[in-house]
C-alpha cells in the first residue's frame, strides 16, 4: 500500500496562506501538478499513492475524478488570489500518477482547460502527462495535442520481457516504438522512463534496454535505480528469498554504462537521473522542483509548495472526494520551512543538477568542505574555481553523482 503521509502543522479548512508566501513571489515561476491516483495493476516495486479499482471502495471513482480535481484547481486559484499573490500564468503542467492516461483524454483536456481558465497558460508552456505504453493510441495522443499538451513521458522501464514481468508491467517491449511514433505524429515531445537494477536483470539485459531506448531517439530520458520500498510486494519477495536484493555495485556499473551510452548518443545529463537531447528538451517542470519554484499540487496525496510553505493533501481518493464535495481544502497538513531548512534543501537539490549550486550562496562552514570534495573527485574543480571567469559553482562529477549523499553530507556537516 502507499506510504504514510508525514506529520505537520494543522492545515486550515479554507486553505489560507500566510503573508510570508508573498516574499519574492513575482520572481518565482508557477507550475501545476495533477496527481491521478489510478492504476490498472499495482506494480510490485511501487509505493506511490495509487489505487486499483478493487482498492477504491465507496465514495470515490475514476469517472468522477476529473471534476473533483478541477474543483481543487478553482479552489487553489481562489486561495492564491485571497493571499494577494501576483497574477502568474502557469509555465509548466505535469499530470502524474498512477497512470493519468487511464482516464479518458477528454478528462485530461478538461483539467488542463480549468488551469487555463483560472490562471492562464504562458506562451511556450510545457505540458506533460505520464503514460503507460499500453494506455494510449493515436487518437488519444492527438486529442492531448489538440488540447495543448506538449510532452508525453512513457513508462518504458525495460525492453526485456522477464524484467518487465518482475516489475509487474503490463506492456510488451514491442509497444514502445509504436506509441513513440504516434506521439511524434501528433506533434508531442517524447520522454522515456527506465528502471535499472531490477532483481534478475543482468548487465546484458540493461544494455539491451539502453539499445532499445536509444533506437526510439527520445527527446528526453529518465533512469532510476530500483529502490526497494518497505511494504511493497517486491520487499516481501526479497524478504522471503524469492528474488535477490538489488546490488549497489551493480547499480553503479549500470549507471556508468547509462551515462556513457547516452553521452555517446548526444544526450547531456542535467540532473542525476535525467538526460536531454538539448537544453530546450529538459523537463522544466521537474527543474522547478529542484530549484525551489512555486507549484500547486492537486489530487489525493499531492504536495504543493509556495514561498517556503509546503502542504500535502489527504491520501485516499474517498477522503479527497469528500473534502471537495464540501468545498474544503483537501490539505492534510503543512509546514512553513525555516531558513535553515530551506538552505539545507537548496544544497540537497541544487547539487544534483548540472547547473550546480552557487558557491557564493554557501555558508562559510559549507565552503570549508570544497577542497576535500575536489580532492576526492566528487565535484568539478574547474567549476568550483570559476574557470574562465564564470561564477563559482558546486557541480558533481560522475563519481559525485554516484555518491551524491556524500557530497551533501560534507556540505551540510
Automatic annotation (TrEMBL):
Probably acts as a heme chaperone, transferring heme to an unknown acceptor. Binds one molecule of heme per monomer, possibly covalently. Binds 1 [4Fe-4S] cluster. The cluster is coordinated with 3 cysteines and an exchangeable S-adenosyl-L-methionine. PANTHER family: COPROPORPHYRINIGEN III OXIDASE, RADICAL S-ADENOSYL METHIONINE DOMAIN-CONTAINING PROTEIN 1, MITOCHONDRIAL. One of its GO terms (cellular component) is cytoplasm. It holds the Pfam family Radical_SAM. It comes from the Bacteria. CDD domains: Radical_SAM (cd01335). One of its GO terms (biological process) is porphyrin-containing compound biosynthetic process. GO terms for molecular function: 4 iron, 4 sulfur cluster binding; coproporphyrinogen oxidase activity; metal ion binding. This is Heme chaperone HemW. SMART domains: Elp3 (SM00729). Keywords: 4Fe-4S, Chaperone, Cytoplasm, Heme, Iron, Iron-sulfur, Metal-binding, S-adenosyl-L-methionine.
Amino acid at each position: 500500500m502507499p506510504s504514510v503521509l508525514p506529520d505537520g502543522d494543522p492545515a486550515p479548512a479554507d486553505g489560507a496562506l500566510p503573508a510570508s508566501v508573498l516574499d519574492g513571489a513575482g520572481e518565482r515561476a508557477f507550475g501545476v501538478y495533477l496527481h491521478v491516483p489510478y492504476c490498472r495493476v499495482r506494480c510490485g516495486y511501487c509505493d506511490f499513492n495509487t489505487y486499483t479499482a478493487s482498492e477504491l471502495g465507496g465514495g470515490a471513482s475514476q469517472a468522477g475524478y476529473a471534476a473533483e480535481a478541477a474543483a481543487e484547481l478553482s479552489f487553489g486559484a481562489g486561495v492564491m488570489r485571497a493571499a494577494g499573490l501576483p497574477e502568474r500564468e502557469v509555465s509548466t503542467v505535469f499530470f502524474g500518477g498512477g497512470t493519468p492516461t487511464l482516464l479518458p483524454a477528454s478528462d485530461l483536456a478538461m483539467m488542463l482547460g480549468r488551469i487555463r481558465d483560472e490562471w492562464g497558460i504562458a506562451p511556450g508552456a510545457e505540458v506533460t502527462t505520464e503514460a503507460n505504453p499500453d494506455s494510449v493510441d493515436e487518437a488519444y495522443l492527438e486529442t492531448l495535442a489538440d488540447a495543448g499538451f506538449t510532452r508525453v513521458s512513457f513508462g518504458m522501464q525495460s525492453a526485456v520481457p522477464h524484467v518487465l514481468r518482475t516489475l509487474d508491467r503490463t506492456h510488451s517491449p514491442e509497444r514502445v516504438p509504436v506509441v513513440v511514433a504516434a506521439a511524434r505524429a501528433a506533434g508531442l515531445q517524447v520522454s522515456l522512463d527506465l528502471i535499472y537494477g531490477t532483481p534478475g536483470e543482468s548487465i546484458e539485459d540493461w544494455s539491451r534496454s539502453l539499445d532499445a531506448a536509444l533506437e526510439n531517439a527520445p527527446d528526453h530520458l529518465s533512469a532510476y535505480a530500483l529502490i526497494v520500498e518497505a511494504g511493497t510486494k517486491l520487499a516481501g519477495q526479497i524478504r522471503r528469498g524469492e528474488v535477490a536484493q538489488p546490488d549497489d555495485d551493480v547499480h553503479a556499473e549500470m549507471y556508468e554504462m547509462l551515462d556513457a551510452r547516452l553521452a555517446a548518443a548526444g544526450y547531456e545529463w542535467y540532473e542525476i537521473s535525467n538526460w536531454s537531447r538539448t537544453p530546450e528538451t529538459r523537463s522544466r517542470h521537474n527543474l522547478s522542483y529542484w530549484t525551489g519554484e512555486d507549484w500547486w499540487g492537486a489530487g489525493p496525496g499531492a504536495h504543493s509548495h509556495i514561498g517556503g510553505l509546503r502542504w500535502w493533501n489527504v491520501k485516499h481518493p474517498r477522503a479527497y472526494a469528500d473534502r471537495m464535495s464540501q468545498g474544503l481544502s483537501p490539505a492534510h497538513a503543512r509546514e512553513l520551512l525555516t531558513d535553515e531548512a530551506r538552505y539545507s534543501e537548496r544544497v540537497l537539490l541544487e547539487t544534483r543538477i548540472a547547473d550546480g549550486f552557487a558557491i557564493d550562496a554557501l555558508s562559510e562552514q559549507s565552503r570549508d568542505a570544497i577542497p576535500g570534495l575536489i580532492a576526492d573527485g566528487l565535484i568539478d574543480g574547474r567549476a568550483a574555481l570559476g574557470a574562465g571567469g564564470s561564477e563559482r559553482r558546486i557541480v558533481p562529477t560522475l563519481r559525485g553523482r554516484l555518491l551524491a549523499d556524500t557530497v551533501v553530507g560534507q556540505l551540510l556537516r
